[in-house]
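wait is this the right file?? whatever heres the structure
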């Protein structure tokens, strides 16, 4: 699979690069960014995947919570989305294969995290693939999409009207049937996040399901913080340390 380098910038002693490639799963060109720390020059590093959103299909850019910026990390089953909207398979299969083949990474050591819809993506990728990821964390994730307006809109569009199919991409439902392979979850949530107050994120439902299944989750409600990148920037170091603990074990 040919990678085309778009940019490269020195950063924190290493290199921050952006690449483009033709995705088999998504039937379009995809860009991804990769940070190569100084250690990557001499040896293999663990990989930490960050999920944040396409292709130009009629109707996809009419709303920001459905379409290009909002694939919801599912493999769509409905027309016209099913040809290109296969972000779940892209993130869990195609992208790691590409990274493992082209960069000095240890394929046995990978973790995943993300923000908002990407937080939802990180949680479902880890919960649907026990043992694949060493750890998972999220900032303000959409925890129970089958019950929130964003999730209902996206899932009915991408997955159709049969709501039993929706549960396969809902972290709160996936936790209930998780087979118990060790997974430590860290979630940060801003207390002044408008989407929390609007009932889009529903972390309490996820925490309750984790507690019932005795799956370790650290949930931190951060006073005064909203849904923005300022919130992420404030706590990102904690998340990287969380993953490093498991990736370097």
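ok assuming it is, sequence goes like this
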């Amino acid at each position: 699979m040919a990678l085309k380098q778009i940019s490269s910038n020195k950063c924190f002693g290493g290199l921050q690069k952006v690449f483009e490639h033709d995705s088999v799963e998504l039937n379009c060109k995809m860009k991804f960014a990769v940070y190569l720390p100084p250690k990557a020059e001499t040896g293999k590093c663990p990989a930490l995947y960050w999920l944040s959103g396409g292709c130009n299909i009629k109707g996809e850019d009419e709303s920001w919570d459905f379409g290009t910026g909002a694939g919801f990390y599912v493999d769509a089953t409905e027309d016209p989305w099913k040809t290109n909207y296969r972000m779940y398979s892209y993130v869990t299969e195609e992208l790691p294969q590409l990274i493992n083949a082209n960069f000095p990474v240890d394929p046995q050591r990978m973790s995943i995290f993300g923000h908002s819809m990407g937080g939802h993506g990180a949680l479902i990728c880890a919960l649907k693939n026990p043992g694949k990821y060493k750890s998972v964390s999220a900032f303000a994730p959409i925890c129970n999409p089958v019950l929130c307006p964003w999730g209902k809109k996206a899932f009915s569009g991408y997955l159709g009207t049969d709501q039993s199919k929706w549960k396969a991409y809902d972290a709160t439902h996936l936790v209930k049937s998780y087979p118990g392979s060790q997974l430590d979850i860290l979630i940060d949530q801003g207390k002044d996040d408008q989407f929390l107050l609007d009932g889009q994120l529903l972390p309490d439902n996820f925490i309750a399901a984790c507690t019932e299944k005795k799956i370790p989750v650290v949930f931190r409600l951060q006073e005064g913080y909203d849904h923005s990148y300022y919130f992420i920037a404030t706590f990102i170091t904690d998340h990287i340390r969380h993953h490093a603990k498991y990736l370097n074990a």
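The radius of gyration is 18 Å. so i think its the right one actually
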